[in-house]
Design a protein that fits this description.
Radius of gyration of chain A: 25 Å
Number of helices of chain A: 18
Helix content of chain A: 40-55%
Strand content of chain A: 5-15%
Shape of chain A: globular
Structural class of chain A: alpha/beta
Distance between the termini of chain A: 37 Å
CATH architecture of the largest domain in chain A: 3-Layer(aba) Sandwich
Strand order of the largest sheet of chain A: 4-11-10-9-8-5-6-7
Oligomer: homodimer
Largest interface: A-B, 109 and 106 residues
Number of domains of chain A: 3
Chain lengths: 499, 499
């Protein structure tokens, strides 16, 4: 069995991960079987021109997933676990498998760390289902199902979306001063598909794309898959750094994706002058802006005369491509989002939408439209914001009480907050302890674009109750304090260090 | 108020326009307010290192749009108008569009010819909505909506699909001998998305991909967009030509997409021995097969001992990747399809599904599952097949009576039939006359891969009533006869030729 992983040192994905993905695939495809011995790390490292620790790290990752087993003095073997149980019956089929590892396109997305079960989980940027207005939504569904329109809803529709929903959203955007006469709209399966269609519309392999760093991994991975060269723009308390963005434009980036309000994962919001600045910069550079606006409606700030509501970038510049969704305010399981942007962009994205899946599900479009038009969505939103204020209060109090060694900035809305750990602590190492102690979060590394982000972590609080937030942050704080203490000890006695 | 427009002399946009956009934006964002005085042109020009006429031109533009007002001897002031009428703001935006034609990726898909309204339309390969069992489907929806499961359905789900639906479909496929233990399933937004995800999983730019010729354009265009080199395999009465497929494998194709039953657009079905042959050929070549199986359940043939039901390719070879959908048997507007295939393929496609749109809409998955489990889908299918037999009879009688100059092969099911025109006639030219005469169809050219297909056309009959099929084909037949007659005349007098 020859091991030829074809590693890419220029990739964002660390080499050990590329190697482990490759080996994983060999095991899955049956090219490596239960009982097969893997080459010793030293040997494989020599063969591939890698550092031995890279190979060891790859083996460790596979061992964590139960795919291989190390035996002292004997080396590493493919374990039965991967193919176990039902899979044994497979053997005959396995025998005749095509070499899928050669046929499949390589994965560039580092796998998401699995969330721990049964703990207070800060891992998911999603709404609390305790707040779902199930009766009200059901009522909207029943009204749609009883309408004489059902025949048309069940029949094939238009790639651009369900016309009444398109009109409703576009009218609303015009009333908000966000959509202009040169704009059009495309309905998508949530914001994720909006990003995917725009990627296909605007990015060629090798193109430079600027995005916040850290950033939502579903966005980063999407652009990585398309062969784009990512330029991570640091995010501070005021969101994306305009100076670094200008450098990215100077370096040739012609697209930036930005979440100006309650960015995921940092929770940061850009002030008005930065918003104006990046629109000017993009225009001068001839670059497109994708404005990911899925969190701004979750703002608990009460605009007053001193701090008026922050304008969407789309309001400042008609060239901006605006993404919206019902998933964060209403229901993530009902997949409806949209793109509002200049007509040529929407025309191209709509063409690609037709190729991607013909059109978004009709029933969901009609249900959500009715839910919005009936006023039930607005009532739900008010209810969500009321609950959010309590959560933010719990967040602020707990951070003050328990995370005094860390850096953080309480957002005035959204779903996420970024915690900077004290110097020397590492969010990945800390996570194992956190899971044991009854909480879970996602380490900063998972959101990294061009920088390591190892000393940060994301807490997604919107899905939790205030009491859970308090208890979770109390646990996190005590873990951090202990780790900070041990860090001192570790400096004297390396054996004790665990971070 | 500092004015720092960050002008770009290298831009396509003239400097005065860049400046006016910048100032416009300051006004829109409230940084410059009604009554604020702009710097004198001479002063601003000096400050920015511009020619004074550039600044004057920018001010004039703003004045034209009512955003500023010049007063003799006093300078220019921001007027109130800028923040009012939305249409005013528009005007400039229209003027300053980004050069989208340079930023957007090029379209490779020839646009679909628009269908004529108010005619007997053979243009759409979709079910008849007259047959939709709306009451029965509504009943299933209501049962799902009343279930205690609603909270989970409205929350974020799994990229692989709604677990009960996955299990139902996989169990059914196992019972049919189609899925094996090494297989897994992914729920998609209909079959179109299944194709898209498999394209991303299996095709790199420049890869050779074999497909039927003619073929459904949504399939061809998808692979064209990915930069694949398409090899069209001629389709005859017995479907795809195995000899040509072998040549494609010899030429380096490692993927073939095939619709063995009731192919779109030809309606052709592969006999059993061809099915066995292409599985063997693909295996020997180390190539993957995607089996597009969305029409086989629409078979009106009654299998008997002499002609048993034709096996799916997936039953013959576990490596085959099988695509299914509810869209052709039930409702195209509810977007649910699936992929059943070897685990490594499903793993990669699922990863891409998450990047594409997180997961398929939950409600639709639950509705269709309930519709199937309650037995309502099977009852509907029986009803559809009963109606289909009548349509096929109408098709056969009409083709015999009116298309005796053409070639055709009545399928035993599906939705489409291919009509070969008499020599010298062209389906594109004939279409204009057909629309005037009250019918519409799609010309063969629209389905072409490597061959012109100009002398063929597709009739999609499933959405029409038997009476419409008879009347439509009668009209088509008389047009063809007239054209054949004129063709003779044209040979003598070129001026009269219209095809």
């Amino acid at each position: 069995m020859e091991i030829r992983p074809g590693l890419n040192p220029a990739s964002e994905v660390p080499l050990y991960r590329q190697l482990s993905v490759y080996l994983h695939r060999l095991i899955e495809s049956g090219e490596l079987r239960a009982g097969d011995r893997l080459p010793p790390t030293r040997e494989l490292a020599g063969q591939l021109g890698l550092n031995r620790t890279t190979v060891s790290a790859a083996y460790e990752l596979l061992e964590t997933h139960g795919l291989i087993k190390g035996e002292v003095g004997r080396g590493s073997y493919v374990s039965g676990a991967g193919n176990s149980g039902a899979a044994n019956a497979l053997r005959t089929v396995q025998d005749e498998h095509l070499k899928w590892s050669r046929l499949l396109t390589p994965s560039v997305a580092p796998p998401a760390p699995p969330a721990a079960p049964g703990v207070i989980s800060f891992t998911n940027s999603r709404p609390s289902d305790n707040l779902f207005p199930i009766e009200e939504f059901r009522a909207s569904c029943l009204e749609v199902l009883a309408s004489p329109n059902m025949k048309a809803l069940l029949q094939l529709g238009s790639p651009g979306g369900y016309e009444p929903l398109r009109r409703f959203l576009l009218d609303r955007a015009v009333a908000q001063g966000v959509a202009r006469v040169g704009d059009d709209i495309l309905i998508t399966n949530g914001c994720q598909q909006a990003l995917d269609l725009l990627r296909r519309s605007l990015v060629r392999p090798g193109d430079k794309v600027a995005m916040e760093d850290p950033v939502y991994p579903g966005l980063r991975n999407l652009f990585l898959e398309s062969g784009a060269e990512l330029i991570g723009i640091p995010v501070g308390r005021q969101g994306l750094d305009p100076v670094a963005l200008q450098r990215a434009f100077d370096a040739g980036a012609r697209l930036v994706v930005v979440t100006p309000s309650f960015q995921n994962p940092t929770g940061a919001t850009m002030p008005a002058d930065h918003r104006v600045a990046i629109c000017s910069m993009a225009r001068a550079a001839g670059a497109a802006i994708i404005e990911n606006d899925i969190y701004s409606e979750l703002s608990c700030a009460l605009p007053d005369s001193r701090s008026p509501a922050l304008p969407r970038l789309k309001k400042l510049d008609g060239n901006v491509i605006l993404l919206g969704s019902f998933s964060k305010v209403a229901f993530p399981g009902v997949r409806v989002g949209w793109i509002i942007g200049p007509r040529p962009v929407i025309a191209r994205a709509t063409e690609l939408k037709q190729l991607a899946d013909l059109h978004t599900d009709h029933l969901s479009q009609a249900f959500l439209l009715h839910f919005a038009q009936s006023g039930r969505l607005a009532a739900h939103e008010a209810h969500v914001l009321e609950a959010a204020r309590e959560k933010l209060r719990a967040l602020e109090e707990s951070c003050r009480s328990h995370l005094s060694d860390c850096t953080w900035n309480i957002p005035s809305g959204g779903m996420n907050i970024w915690i900077g750990l004290p110097a020397g602590l590492d969010a990945v190492s800390l996570r194992g302890l956190a899971q044991q102690a009854g909480i879970d979060y996602l380490p900063g590394r998972y959101f990294a674009v061009s920088r390591a982000q190892d000393s940060g972590l994301r807490l997604s609080f919107a899905g939790l109750e205030p009491g859970e937030i308090r208890e979770g942050i109390r646990i996190l704080g005590s873990l951090i304090q202990r780790a900070v203490g041990l860090r001192g000890v570790a400096a004297q006695s390396p054996a004790l260090a665990m971070v």
